[in-house]
């Protein structure tokens, strides 16, 4: 019986996806629920598994193909056996190279025997009908490289532009420069062109829309991180022993942000047409780096989460992002975001909005800096923080006071524990 392998039903916001990487080839034996191909959407990477055990009879869509929900991408023969597949592969003969890749046989100079020339060099020499004895090899043991051939071709082309009898003394300075200048080869100035991933293309589209639509401003402040660092150092061991996760800085920032959002609801709002939507919940997006790019999973109802629950959720999302295991639901929604460029060494930045959210907080690295306390200059671990916001609905006053509230909560973290 032939069983069709179809693209799973995608979310309403996802119109199509891309087949990123087939793990099986036509003729391979597959087991039920075995991953056949990775499916890349503009949000997550999904796995398309085999619906039945059998032989992968046909792959209808190759790597890089764009597909839509419920589209047939392969066919499995459930009646073919594993043994039959192995026998077929043993009997299979390799196909000859297609005609365009047949290498023309050339006669080589005794100084440069055939085994000393790479296939690419032999083909280049044959295609241009070059006398190999005229080329000076710069490779190991005088071996001719592709760059040597390209330089020879470039030199020939330049020399043909000038009269044969012309000497360097007879030529103008410009002519002398043209004939003596070394022309860079493709090997010396390499380039690589790759298609933009669907996630990267979607991120680029959304962020550019944010720049074109929102009136983005950024306000800054600095936070003395010593109280948080002291509290963290005091309890980090017992915290990890009890909860099985390290106590980081992000849980403090999430708590401080939620407390400030309650004081300034417009920071937690979004624009829908000519309406302002005030959200009565606090879904905080945490920017996480993944092999595919930056993703922003959501801590839902962050106001109801403990420090341990926040750290556990962030650790889980980080692991899922690294393994391309994030699900669509992990990234949907969000009323406010936090981005931590400090983990990469950023001192200061202006984070860009994550639509339809109206504000985002940027964290940065912590450095010992001189500050004045009680009339004395002392060194303190200082972090610069930035709040980018949509000035269409958020006034500067609210943005500044929001950031001051975050600063005050972090510089006296016991207030978050006592809710004062």
Kindly describe this structure.
The protein has 420 residues and is α+β, with helices and mostly antiparallel strands. The protein is 31% helix and 23% strand. Strands 9, 12, 15, 16, 17, 18 and 19 form a 7-stranded mixed beta sheet that branches. A 4-stranded antiparallel beta sheet has the order 1-8-6-3, with no helix packed on it. Strand 18 (366-373) and strand 19 (376-390) form a beta hairpin. The N and C termini lie far apart (68 Å). The model is unreliable at 86-95, 97-115 and 157-166 (pLDDT under 50).
Which whole number gives the mean pLDDT?
A: 82
Strand content: 15-25%
Biggest beta sheet summary: 7 strands, mixed
Shape: extended
Helix content: 25-40%
Let me know the CATH homologous superfamily of the largest domain. Answer: Chloramphenicol acetyltransferase-like domain
**Tally of separate helices:** 11
Rg of Cα set: 31 Å
How many strands?
19
Quick structural summary:
This protein has helices spanning 82-91, 119-128, 146-160, 173-180, 198-213, 226-243, 250-263, 307-322, 328-331, 396-411, 414-418, and strands at 2-6, 17-22, 29-30, 35-40, 45-49, 54-59, 66-67, 72-77, 216-224, 270-272, 275-277, 284-286, 288-290, 293-295, 298-299, 336-340, 359-363, 366-373, 376-390. By secondary structure, the protein is an alpha+beta fold.
Set down the secondary structure blueprint:
Blueprint: E1 2-6, E2 17-22, E3 29-30, E4 35-40, E5 45-49, E6 54-59, E7 66-67, E8 72-77, H1 82-91, H2 119-128, H3 146-160, H4 173-180, H5 198-213, E9 216-224, H6 226-243, H7 250-263, E10 270-272, E11 275-277, E12 284-286, E13 288-290, E14 293-295, E15 298-299, H8 307-322, H9 328-331, E16 336-340, E17 359-363, E18 366-373, E19 376-390, H10 396-411, H11 414-418
Parallel strand pairs: 12-16, 16-17
Antiparallel strand pairs: 1-8, 2-4, 2-7, 3-6, 4-5, 6-8, 9-19, 10-11, 12-15, 13-14, 17-19, 18-19
Helix pairs in contact: 7-8, 7-10
